[in-house]
Amino acid sequence: MTKLKLTEIDGDKKCRVVAFEGGSNMKTKLENLGIRLGNEITVVNNSFIGGPITVLSGNTKVAIGRKMAERILVEVVK
Question: Which of 46, 51, 59, 76 is at 20 to 30 A from 40, Cα to Cα?
Fold first, then answer.
């Protein structure tokens, strides 16, 4: 499957986290928010004009800043 940046995913799409393009601090922060490698997440809101991206991870909604979201690689789950 094709790896995409989280910022490239439209709202209401389910995807799987496949990689982080950041350091250990970013990985730790995302893991504390419940976003881990291999997890399936659903993009709830992705406004292409800027602002955070809201994702659903399990039963928890999480807002991720756009710069951080650009460094999260995902693949769309069908």
Answer: 51
